[in-house]
Amino acid sequence: MKRLLLLPILLLSLSAFSQENWETTFKGGINCSFLSSGVSSSGNKIYFGATAGLEQTYYFDNSIFSAQSGLEYENIGAGLNSISVTVGGSNPGMGTLSRENANYLTVPLHLKCQINERWGALAGAGYRFGLGDRQSGNSRASDDISLDAGFFYKLDKMRFNLIYQHGLQEADPGYQMIQSKNRTITFTVSTSLWKK
């Protein structure tokens, strides 16, 4: 875990002594997360959360491709209101499961491609360190790995990002009869802090 947290620091250190182009940006925004339909008795719901952090981007020689990492805080609003469970062979019963916003410290690693002067695409993965939530009475969210893909639009010193993140771990592994993986659409705005 500590080694993964050193990745953004390593990229920043390499960039500082490199002759290539690099950029440090701050980003903030919102995320909309949802689970599979039928999980909630009231249907598929969307939950809102927030994200903020620092990104370090290393531009390769041709400036078309770049590698990006960073460190960000995510408050993911993936919640479950209630589910129906069956107790015993012929004794149906109702059970409830409450899962409120989960908090993560995320280390992403993305490969970016500049399609034209304004538009670009990115893909990669992120490791989410579970910090805390109120998920079924637990005090800590489970660690997660997400597969990420999305687009970005550059406008002067600002960049607008739209990314889909698909979690690979069950958010609540205690309930095997439902799919509770975090599926998140994140919209963020980035602005440059340092550039070389």
What share of residues is helical?
Answer: under 10%
Give, in spatial order, the strands making up the sheet with the most strands: 1-2-3-6-7-8-9-10
Name of the CATH first level:
Mainly Beta
Average pLDDT, to the nearest integer? 76
Q: How large, in whole angstroms, is the Cα Rg?
A: 19 Å
Describe the structure.
There is one protein chain. This protein is mainly beta and about 200 residues long. The protein has a single domain, classed as Porin. Helices cover about 10% and strands about 60% of the residues. It has one helix at about 1-15, and strands at about 20-35, 45-60, 65-75, 85, 90-95, 100-115, 120-135, 145-155, 160-170, 180-195. The strands form two sheets. An eight-stranded antiparallel beta barrel has the order 1-2-3-6-7-8-9-10. Strand 2 and strand 3 form a beta hairpin. The longest helix is centred in the N-terminal third of the chain and has 16 residues, at about 1-15. It is elongated. The two termini are about 30 Å apart. About 30% of the residues are buried. The model is unreliable at about 35-45 and about 90-100 (pLDDT under 50).
